[in-house]
Automatic annotation (TrEMBL):
GO terms for molecular function: protein-disulfide reductase activity. It comes from Dendrothele bispora (strain CBS 962.96). Residues 1-21 form the signal peptide. GO terms for cellular component: endoplasmic reticulum lumen. Residues 309-439 are annotated as: Disordered. GO terms for biological process: response to endoplasmic reticulum stress. This is Thioredoxin domain-containing protein.
Length: 439
């Protein structure tokens, strides 16, 4: 019996796994799935990306570092997984998913409720995977272009049987986090976004202009035109907890204030794992800025112009909109926090008023692009959002499932699987013309 146990232990130790075989980096945020994990991954109404691979597949080995970089850029907004189809317990799952060659990468736009899409682009780079996944999140966010259009939207949606959430952001695009929340809470909370140029719309609505990196989230109870301003952290898990509390209650103003009070008390205390992920994400941004230009002179010029510097303004740290939350300040009597907040509000409003008075009115808020506002959910946006060091294009050739040899086969790729109609052809970008103003 002991002999058999030793043999089993040795066999398990020698069995090739994705990590020990060197397919995925040791610190990769890509999570391996078995059949049970696969069902759990598709249970939430969220977008996720899953790669079906085999340890002996040379194409999989070359793709894995790029896939891991894409996963880091998408983390935690779009979960990224992989399935080892060479594992006996996963073979039925891979067959059910129509896997005919390795690697096969699929996007599940909304859990089990929307048919998956198969990645069929010629380039298997981190940026290509990132673009492909992030731009295929089902669009459930209404874009409001003018400040004057906000109140009509609020009044029009009072007849809905669900609360509404409005994001005021200074970023040119709808943040990825807000798109993810729109998809996650589709049919439960009505989400909208408005570009708050230099805080002008905030001032128009009676709020302070606010800092560049601080968006505002306004919640409107069912049937009400009066907003409750969210006071918590603009992070995926924090906003999800708050939204869940709103949905669990009757979404009255009283319920919102209670949930808001709980959200406001949260301190941002990331653990070492989250901090390491943030450091890696920042390193990717820096690497991208250098690798996205033809020579060092161009790179230095780009740094001077601030290209890539607004990565965390747009996508945040670890799925957070804006800058890291500041520590709550308290003075004697416990009144420091309110005092500090009041002082910051007064300064910000004075600064905003001065800017609004002195500045010439800017061009209209992208109204000319209104007809195409939602097209970027299916096709490539005008300005890509690279997230990793650009790399040379990888061959899109896949290894057929039937080829079980450990050496890399050179067999041609099997016929491509049908891709959902929503997956549109994306334009190709060379290394020299890829913008890096946003990661």
């Amino acid at each position: 019996m002991m002999f058999d146990l030793q043999l089993l232990t040795l066999a398990l130790a020698l069995t090739p796994s994705l990590v020990s075989a060197g397919i995925f980096p040791k610190d990769s945020v890509v999570k391996m799935l078995d059949p049970k994990g696969f069902k759990q991954a598709l249970k939430p109404n969220q977008t996720s990306m899953i790669a079906f691979v085999a340890p002996w597949c040379g194409h999989c080995q070359r793709m894995a570092p790029e896939y891991s970089k894409a996963a880091l850029g998408l983390y935690p907004l779009i979960p990224t997984y992989a399935v080892n189809c060479d594992d006996e317990k996963n073979k039925r799952l891979c067959a059910e998913q129509g896997v005919q060659g390795f690697p096969t990468v699929k996007l599940f736009p909304r859990g089990k409720t929307v048919p998956p899409m198969t990645y069929d682009q010629p380039e298997r780079s981190a940026s290509a995977f990132f673009y492909w996944a992030s731009r295929r999140i089902p669009n459930a966010v209404t874009k409001i272009y003018r400040a004057e259009e906000i109140q009509p939207w609020v009044e029009k949606t009072t007849s809905l049987d669900r609360p509404r959430a409005l994001l005021l952001t200074k970023d040119k695009k709808v943040p990825l986090l807000w798109k993810v929340l729109g998809n996650k809470y589709q049919g439960q909370i009505e989400l909208a976004s408005h570009r708050d140029r230099k805080g002008k719309s905030s001032v128009f609505m009676g709020y302070e202009a606010g800092e560049k990196k601080v968006p505002k989230v306004l919640i409107y109870p069912i049937g009400s035109t009066k907003a409750v301003r969210y006071e918590g952290i603009n992070k995926l898990d924090s906003l999800s907890t708050f939204f869940d509390s709103v949905i669990d209650g009757t979404a009255t103003a009283s319920d919102l204030l209670t949930a808001n009070s709980q959200a406001a008390s949260e301190e941002y205390t990331p653990d070492e794992t989250e901090l390491e992920i943030e450091r890696q994400q920042e390193a990717q941004r820096i690497a991208l800025a250098h690798g996205g230009f033809a020579d060092l002179i161009d790179f230095e010029e780009a740094v001077k112009k601030g290209h890539g510097a607004d990565f965390h303004d747009t996508h945040g740290y670890g799925g957070m909109m804006g800058d890291l939350p500041k520590k709550k300040k308290m003075t004697e009597g416990g009144e420091g926090e309110a005092k500090d907040k009041a002082e910051e509000t007064a300064k910000a409003k004075a600064k905003a008023d001065a800017e609004v008075e002195a500045e010439d009115e800017e061009d209209e808020d992208e109204v000319q692009f209104g007809a195409d506002a939602d097209a970027d959910q299916v096709v490539m946006e005008a300005t890509p959002e690279p997230i990793a060091t650009p790399s040379s294009s990888s061959s899109a050739e896949s290894v057929p499932v039937e080829t079980q040899a450990k050496a890399e086969p050179e067999a041609p790729e099997p016929p491509a699987e049908p891709v959902a109609a929503a997956a549109a052809e994306e334009p190709k970008h060379s290394e020299s013309d890829r913008p890096v103003d946003e990661l």
